[in-house]
Amino acid sequence: MQTVLKSRNQVVLGLSGKPASLTITIRSISTGHRLEGNASFELSSEGEPLEKTDSLTCAASLSFGCGVVARFSTTGRKAEPPSVYEAQLQDGVLTITAGVRKASEGKEADGKGAGGKGSEAKGTEVKSDFESFVAGIIDNTSVAVKVRVDQQQEFLFDLQRLAWPLADIAPDHPFSARFAGDPVLAGLKQRFPSRYLKIVDLVRKLVPDAGTLTQEAETRILESIHAAVGSLRPMVPDELLERIVANAAAAARQVGSGDLPLCNALAVAARSPLTVPGLKDSAVARAEYALWHEVIEQAHPRFIRKVPNDDLLPSTPTFEENMRVANESGCGMFAAVIEAILKLPREERRLWLRATVGTVEDLRAEAPPSRR
Fold first, then answer.
1. 141 in helix, strand or coil?
2. Which terminal residue of the chain, N or C, has fewer Cβ atoms less than 10 Å from its own Cβ?
């Protein structure tokens, strides 16, 4: 599998004075506990390759002589220090590979290895530069790249639009045996690959390449899918949001007041009935799974809208009365809030749902999902 990223800005190289673009090509051979593949970086000017980069102008590495400097960042989060990834230079192309190395090989000594991390215990297996670079892609929304010391500015890449960059997990892998052909995962992979990458990254860390998938591992994978789908809830139509909340309330009612924390978590869809042993194969769990698929198919930033508090005031007396009645039926406080909202008239109900559930995260700045 191959994924190609092209810089969205022209960078001027100081020594040549030429504007240049950078193309990153990620070639993935296999995805499992270890990643196999490479990432290559090639400069071009007006569509033509530049003269071969020499050792005097390529970004400094720790031991190879040439390297790639990447500065990953995410909106709303403090940027991490730049990371240096050692790269082979051949025919003007810099390549990061996926060889496995041990912490005793020396990069850990000064804490300046790939990813800018601190020291590792001697003999401990650590990520290759390729795996560290891919991890940065998974965990961040943008990356600024420098491949030569004479660049006047960095190349900037928007990772939110990045297509799925890794080969599929092998069909004989324990994860594949349970989730192969799963429509929810397939939908995430196609429309929201950055969320799918986080799930696969968890699988790589959690599940060995051989054996069987444990119940604990399956539950954690389902929880990660639930979190990925839950982050899309602000981007769904009112009718679908309404059904999501109604099903969550139904799951809460099945648990009842016997387990108030679980009841409340289910009521606000912070916990999935698919991960609760007593509800795993129930009707509400099956209905929720179908709703996950609908969320992925329908989610789009155009459905996000903020609801001013003044719009909620006319229905407040009715809502408070519904709350009083719901509290008498037991379960928990948050479950009562959800039930009180669901009993409001249609337009008021949808305003309250948007104000409480549908505006958890403002994703209007997120790139629209692609359709293939």
1. coil
2. C
